[in-house]
Each structure stands twice: as structure tokens, then as C-alpha cells.
Design a protein that fits this description.
The chain is α/β, with parallel strands linked by helices. It has a single domain (about 5-315), classed as Inosine-uridine Nucleoside N-ribohydrolase, Chain A (Alpha-Beta Complex), CATH 3.90.245. The protein is built from twelve helices and 13 strands. The protein has helices at about 15-25, 45-60, 80-85, 105-115, 130-140, 170, 175-180, 190-195, 200-210, 215-230, 245-250, 300-315, and strands at about 5-10, 30-40, 65, 100-105, 120-125, 145-155, 185-190, 200, 235-240, 255-260, 260-265, 275, 290-295. β2 (about 30-40), α2 (about 45-60) and β3 (about 65) form a beta-alpha-beta unit. α4 (about 105-115) packs across α5. The protein is globular, with a radius of gyration of 18 Å. Bound molecules: beta-D-ribofuranose and calcium ion (CA).
Length: about 325
């Protein structure tokens, strides 16, 4: 039997980060969590760290949480309160955690990776700006051999959400993203081309919110905020971008994409934060290290995600 993937998730919860964690928590047969690290993004570092602590307890993961970068490498932080609410979780209140966060995420990640038994590797799952990951790669390059792959949510081959050409996580810290995409490590880019098609529709969100299970109610409440107050107002479906990372690891067959080079625009121009994906189909000089997801089966995503929430309702 294939052994479980060891997971280090770096996130900024965040409604969709939270739902991504639900999906992962429902699959202990596939994932062994080594820890959760946080980065400023959807909310301040204090708020996203508090949310990570609460989610770890609420979802029965009970893994170490370490607080990371409070600002991008070069810029002032942005937040996304209009999408994720004042508390970052669509104003859904999860029970407080007795656990406290460690510091610093970069040191925690280094120790977790370098402390793995000889020959073993872990998968990094970043679902926020890439600040912590870039810092770690620059300061502790010895971690490289311990990284199986980096399956990240960020970027797009076509279009953007924070600007016409940039996706939020990459726009927040393009310099960090450039370090990660240029690292030569195996990266899977779960960008908007695929993740925007993966979510829950309004009927599903309402049904969860009105359900009896505690995970259903929390997820439904967060998504109702997303659908009513945020960027999805008036739309039939809320994209749950970050959950495509774990969904890809569980069900790669519902995604399609290609391997290619990805360059990040770090200029101050209109395209700052754009992930420039070479889709010309030319024979590259060297085998590209990045897999870019370009399409997804949204119906299957919804089915598998609802299964995961049901599983957690029954277990917790
Ligand atoms: C990404 O931006 C954040 O607001 C979400 O949590 C997700 O990681 C989508 O563009
Ligand atoms: Ca996120």
C-alpha cells in the first residue's frame, strides 16, 4: 500500500483555506499533517494564525501551528476582508483553541523538513502568498532535497482576480512567487483557470448552513458570507480555490494541464503579479519543473467536497 503523503500546509485562512483544510482532514488515509504555517494575506498574521489554531482543533487535526511572515518580502500587506470577512472566516466563530502558535514558520518548516527520516520527503501545500516558502528556500537551501513537490494555489494562465491579469496570492508577493517558480523544484500551479471552476453552488452552501453537522454548518456559513457579501454576490457558485490543492492530490484525474515554464511579472506595470505561462507548445530547452492546471471537472469537485464534509460531520 502506498504510504501517506506528509503535508506541510502554509496558508492564510481565509474561507477557502479553511475548506481546503476540511477536505484534507477528511482524508487521514492519504495525508499525514506535519504542521500548519501561516502567512499574512487574506487577513493580518494575527487573525490568520488564530484561525489556523482554531481550525486545527475544530477539524480534529491537532497539529502544530507556526506563525510566519507578517508582510510580503518588499511590499506592504493587503488584506481581503470584503471576501473573507473581518475575522477571515466569513465571520463564522469557531471554538477557541487551547494551543498557542510557535514562531517562526520558516524555522518550523526547516526543522520539519530537515527532521524527516533519511530519504523521506514532504509535500508543501501553500494556499497564500509565497513569502514563507521563498524565505525558507533562500535561507535554508538544504531543505530542497526534502521537498517532494510544492502544490500551490496561485496564479493563472489567463486573467486574474485582484487585477485583470493577476491572482491575489501572487499579486500580494510577486517577488516571493518568482523565487518559488524559478526554484527548479517540482511545482503544481493550481491557478484560476482550474480553481475558478471548482466550488460549491448556492443550493449546496445553503443546505450545508442549514444542516445538523458542525462542519457542515461552519462550511455553509462561511460560504454564505462569501456568496452574499463578497466577490461572488449574484453569482451561482463560490469558487473554493485553495481546496483544489488537496483535491488535485486526491483526484488528479479531474484536472488537466501541462508542464511549462512560468515567469512572474515583478514590475510595477499593469501586469504586476501576472504568472506568464508559456502555452505555445514549443519543445522547451529543458524539461519544465512546473505543472500548470488548466481545466477541472467542477461537478466532480463538488461531489467529492460534499463527501468530505459529510465524513467529517460523522467523525467529529
Ligand atoms: C486566493 O486568494 C485568497 O483570497 C484565497 O484564499 C485564495 O488563496 C484566490 O485568488
Ligand atoms: Ca488562501
Amino acid at each position: 500500500m502506498e504510504s501517506k503523503r506528509k503535508i506541510l500546509m502554509d496558508c492564510d485562512p481565509g474561507v477557502d483555506d479553511a475548506v481546503a483544510l476540511c477536505l484534507a482532514a477528511a482524508h487521514p488515509e492519504a495525508f499525514a499533517f506535519l504542521g500548519i504555517t501561516t502567512v499574512a494575506g487574506n487577513q493580518t498574521i494575527e487573525k490568520v494564525t488564530e484561525n489556523a489554531l482554531r481550525l486545527s482543533g475544530f477539524l480534529g487535526l491537532n497539529v502544530p501551528v507556526a506563525m510566519g511572515a507578517r508582510t510580503p518580502l518588499l511590499r506592504a500587506p493587503l488584506t481581503a476582508s470584503e471576501v473573507h470577512g473581518k475575522n477571515g472566516l466569513g465571520n463564522v466563530e469557531l471554538p477557541a483553541s487551547a494551543q498557542t502558535a510557535r514562531e517562526h514558520a520558516v524555522l518550523f518548516l526547516r526543522d520539519a523538513l530537515c527532521g524527516l527520516p533519511a530519504g523521506e520527503q514532504a509535500t508543501l501545500v501553500p494556499t497564500g502568498p509565497l513569502t514563507n516558502i521563498a524565505l525558507m528556500l533562500r535561507v535554508f537551501p538544504e531543505v530542497r532535497e526534502r521537498i517532494a513537490q510544492i502544490v500551490l494555489m496561485g496564479g493563472a494562465a489567463c486573467g486574474g482576480n485582484i487585477t485583470a491579469t493577476a491572482e491575489f496570492n501572487i499579486y500580494e508577493d510577486p517577488e516571493a512567487a518568482a523565487i518559488v517558480f524559478d526554484s527548479g523544484l517540482p511545482v503544481v500551479m493550481c491557478g484560476l483557470d482550474a480553481t475558478a471552476k471548482c466550488g460549491l453552488d448556492r443550493a449546496a452552501a445553503d443546505a450545508l448552513a442549514g444542516g445538523t453537522g458542525k462542519v457542515s454548518r461552519a462550511v455553509g456559513g462561511m460560504l454564505q458570507f462569501y456568496l452574499n457579501a463578497g466577490a461572488y454576490r449574484g453569482r451561482p457558485m463560490a469558487s473554493i480555490h485553495d481546496a483544489s490543492t488537496f483535491m488535485y492530490l486526491l483526484h488528479p484525474e479531474i484536472y488537466s494541464g501541462c508542464r511549462t515554464t512560468v515567469r512572474v511579472d515583478c514590475s510595477e506595470g499593469f501586469n504586476r503579479g501576472m504568472t506568464v505561462c508559456d502555452l505555445r507548445g514549443r519543445e522547451p530547452a529543458a524539461e519544465p519543473s512546473v505543472t500548470v492546471l488548466l481545466d477541472a471537472d467542477g461537478a466532480k469537485f463538488q461531489e467529492y467536497l460534499l463527501d468530505a464534509v459529510r465524513t467529517l460531520d460523522e467523525r467529529l
